[in-house]
């Protein structure tokens, strides 16, 4: 892979890949350096993207610098680098990690980019500093009085930095963003990520047993596969179209994505379940996804938007992402299952009336009711069969317009 070292207004940088009108700006996190972008560049380069990566202050070729790894020094530099990228490339993407993502969102509003890929992003610096203050038993009053306080876990608390973070929260981000997050992230709480997701309409993939720094072979495998899938769809003509895919290989990343989708869907539709009950059921979902004979996924821009599981002629599961509800994706999936797998039966929770109405609209009728679900829990189930005449009529009329 081609690479060229350069400086942008005295900022060390490296440009990967053959000449292209498309370029990702790569921003590393703390303890990173510009050369770590090489593995990302190999993936992006295969899809026609170049990658420009820089050394942030006090990192890489700039290790000898002091007191510059802060927003008032980094932000002007990132603005300078972006101007260079805008002058030399037509289409720009952003790939940032950890505090690099926070610096990026403090520097830009997102509209500058075609797409953004964040790995373990810091999304709320004020909360992060407050957590470190608690860990070091430092009050706001003490920090304000002393200005700088070193800690025994390697960080120096700064009143100036804390004031900046409080005055500049991330309130808007205007770019389609995909986030890879670790369940054991000790820098950003899951609640903070969920709030950002809701506010900025981002896509989230969670590796539950992952860490803030993706570095083990298993974590790196997830990271690389996630990157490949996100870069894959960029620039394709069918962008935005929903594609039905029969899954042949149930990769760890796919299972993580479907588990995340399942939880969001259940929380939006199964309002009769408590958080504890959802958590207990969630533990069994990965095994169910691995064991179902036929797993079918509806993908939107290569990202799972819904999925269903089929055993014989019975629909065992159908879940639509909370963000994709009301767009006809569930209908499209079920029609596919009826046509390709001859689905004839299913079961639905009686306490989920919208699902029952949906299946009735699709031609299913209740033929049996039980007081408990199949695990013995006190949630009535309605067993439904596809009305033969209805199903045949719909199949024959498929594609007709009246």
Explained architecture:
The chain has 402 residues and is of the alpha/beta class. It has helices at residues 38-45, 71-88, 99-107, 125-135, 140-146, 159-167, 190-200, 217-232, 252-269, 275-282, 285-291, 329-341, 353-361, 388-396, and strands at 3-8, 11-16, 22-27, 50-54, 91-97, 115-119, 148-150, 156-158, 177-184, 203-211, 242-246, 294-300, 303-311, 314-320, 345-349, 364-370, 381-386. Strands 1-2-4-3-5-6-9-10 form an 8-stranded mixed β-sheet, with helices on both faces. A hairpin with a 2-residue loop joins strand 1 (3-8) and strand 2 (11-16). Helix 2 packs across helix 3 and helix 4 runs antiparallel to helix 6 (159-167). It is globular. The termini are far apart.
Write a short abstract of this structure.
The protein has 402 residues and is α/β, with parallel strands linked by helices. Helix content is 38%, strand content 26%.
């Amino acid at each position: 892979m081609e690479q060229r070292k350069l400086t942008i207004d005295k900022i060390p940088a490296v440009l990967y890949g053959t000449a292209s009108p498309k370029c990702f700006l790569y921003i590393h996190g703390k303890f990173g350096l510009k050369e770590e972008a090489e593995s990302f560049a190999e993936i992006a380069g295969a899809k026609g993207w170049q990658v420009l990566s820089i050394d942030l202050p006090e990192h890489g070729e700039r290790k000898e610098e002091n007191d510059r790894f802060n927003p008032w020094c980094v932000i002007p530099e990132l603005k300078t680098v972006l101007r260079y990228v805008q002058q030399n490339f037509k289409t720009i993407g952003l790939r940032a990690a950890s505090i690099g993502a926070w610096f990026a969102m403090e520097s830009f509003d997102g509209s500058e980019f075609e797409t953004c890929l964040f790995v373990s992003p810091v999304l709320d610096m004020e909360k992060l500093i407050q957590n470190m203050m608690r860990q070091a038993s430092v009050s706001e009053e003490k920090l304000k009085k002393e200005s700088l306080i070193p800690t025994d876990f390697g960080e120096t608390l700064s009143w100036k930095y804390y004031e900046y973070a409080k005055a500049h929260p991330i309130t808007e981000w205007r770019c389609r963003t995909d986030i890879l997050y670790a369940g054991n992230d000790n820098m950003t709480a899951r609640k903070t990520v969920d709030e950002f997701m809701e506010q900025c309409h981002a896509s989230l993939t969670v590796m539950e047993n992952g860490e803030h720094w993706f570095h083990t072979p298993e974590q790196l495998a997830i990271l690389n596969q996630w990157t490949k899938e996100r870069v894959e769809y960029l620039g394709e003509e069918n962008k935005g179209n929903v594609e039905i895919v029969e899954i042949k290989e149930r990769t760890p990343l796919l299972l993580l994505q479907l588990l995340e989708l399942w939880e969001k869907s259940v929380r939006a539709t199964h309002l009769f379940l408590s958080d504890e009950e959802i958590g207990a059921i969630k533990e069994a979902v990965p095994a169910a996804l691995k064991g179902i004979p036929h797993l079918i996924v509806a993908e939107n821009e290569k990202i799972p938007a819904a999925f269903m599981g089929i055993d014989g002629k019975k629909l065992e599961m159908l879940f639509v992402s909370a963000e994709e509800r009301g767009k006809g994706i569930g209908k499209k999936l079920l029609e596919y299952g009826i046509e390709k797998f001859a689905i004839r039966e299913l079961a639905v929770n009686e306490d989920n009336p919208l699902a029952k109405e949906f299946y009735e609209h699709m031609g299913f009728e209740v033929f049996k009711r039980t007081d408990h679900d199949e695990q013995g829990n006190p949630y009535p189930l309605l067993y439904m069969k596809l009305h033969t005449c209805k199903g045949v009529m719909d199949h024959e009329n498929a594609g007709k317009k009246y």
